[in-house]
Amino acid sequence: MTRRWFWPSFALPGTAWLILLFLVPTYAVLAVAFGTVDPIFAKPIPVWNPFHWQFDTMRYVLGQLKPGHTFWIVFVRTFGYVAISLAGCLLIGYPVAYYLARHARRSKGLLLVLLVIPFWVSYLMRMLAWIGLLLPDGLVNRVLMNLGIISEPHAWLAGQASSVVFALVYGYVPYMILPLYAVLDRIDRNVLEAGRDLGGSPISTFLHVTLPLSKNGILAASVLITLPMFGDYYTNDVISGSPRTSMIGNQINLFFQGGPQKNVGACLVIILSLLLAVLMSYYLWITVRASAETKESLL
Amino acid sequence: MRRVRDWFANPWGQPRALGAVTWLYMAWSIVPVCIAILFSFNNGRSRSVWQGFSTRWWWGDPNNSVLHDPSLRGAIEQSLKLGGLDMLIAVPLGVGLAIGLTRWRGYGARPVNYLMLFPLVTPEIVMAVSLLLVFSLLYSIPFGTEAQTLGQVTFSISYVVIIVRGRLLSIGPEYEEAARDLGASQVGAFRLALLPLLWPAVFASFIVVFALSIDDFVVTDYLSAGQSTQTVPILIYSSVRGTATPALNAVATVMVTITLLSVGLAYFVYRWASRSQPATSGSALNEIAALEV
Questions:
Q1: Where are the domains positioned within chain B?
Q2: What are B57-68's pLDDT values in tens digits?
Q3: Cβ-based contacts of B236 with chain A (< 8 Å)
């Protein structure tokens, strides 16, 4: 006989862990953001009871978010960088995923291995690699100077927005190609042949069959890399290190690792999470739906 | 010019332009890492100008080489230690959660399912900040190895659940039902029918959690207690803009080598272990590849 508690008991330790170390900590952010500050030591005092929450800090932060103020500039910059990087990732990632799924034959195994390698090379190691190349006396400057494109070394690592965007694209594009490849690989070849048989040129078949069928994959992959990019501060720190290119993540990091105003940082974390909530819900929704579909198709 | 264009467009065969883009991308993504590895063997202090081959940054230099500098060695050791701890804790918790969530059909399953997915979509800095606050203000857990392990396990569990659940769904309940029909108890059916079928997924989880752990920067950095508990990514982050020597490249190379070797080994063991398993969708490579997503 099946005991009712048998299966839930498997889930119990993991569930307890996630409640204590994911749910409660999330609440702690609220308690600090809406809490008070010790007047002498300037340390945040969390207020756990929501009826006693104070919203002065949040009001101050929201005031700084008005057009032209400090946080506004940082938020707009972050959106700009993420949007351009996302576009760059799509421009590079889609053709690569498409070629792998549709055309690669003998070389497919090798290409897949090459595609997966960046996943297993630490992100900061990959940044380290580019920093070596982009240093004033690095390979990039020397090649450009030998080609006569620039006459003196360019300071790539001194607060250049273009370098930050370049590094973000380099860092996140592998995470985009793999899900895109999975979606494109699943498209039934018969559908494509039908498109061609009905008189479509390769381009119109691509536009009317392949692209619509991969739309969901594009969205999912975009969300997948957009979420971590919004919280990224380390790419910016190692590639630029200048406040001129600072993003939301840098601002939050500054409050927690540098300055004393942890409650201001906590407010920024809440605002960032609310902004990303739409993207997060979308991703949760497709994940749950996909796993429900697998369940159904297997039952 | 036209001939060149036609050769690239190649209307009757493979689109060579797309192929060129793909190979260029692969080169762009991997060659810089290879150059960084090469520079760990540089004979000078520079990480950007080649001054001849030497192994001084690996073991030759009595003070600043990977072998002799305690802070470099310490970072590697801390990375491996956290990787091991994370694997040992996150995998059992995640496997249990996956089994529970797949087989349990009660009211609680749905909210727990959502709770499990949330760490996957939460930006790491949000998670790091909340752990930092709760450890210092509520749980009074000192920063350092314990706090780092707790933090890493929290974001690793969900990956284990995703991997193991995929396997569970493709196995289906038939094998256990057959075992029960043949007289096995519930525990017996689990141990004798389900668990052996799950091994490949459990094994894959170990590798993925290890890789997640040693690649992690944000949570590990927020919960570290200064120099004594810095890992390799933290070391890179804090010294890459300074006057770091090629020894930093050597440390990074050590980690890359360890990860790639364990993944390569895992891939072959995985294929060997799942050779007699019921057929599942996709090859082992696809499964290992899909794990990160």
A1: 2-57, 71-290
A2: 888 888 888 888
A3: 122, 124-125, 127-128, 238
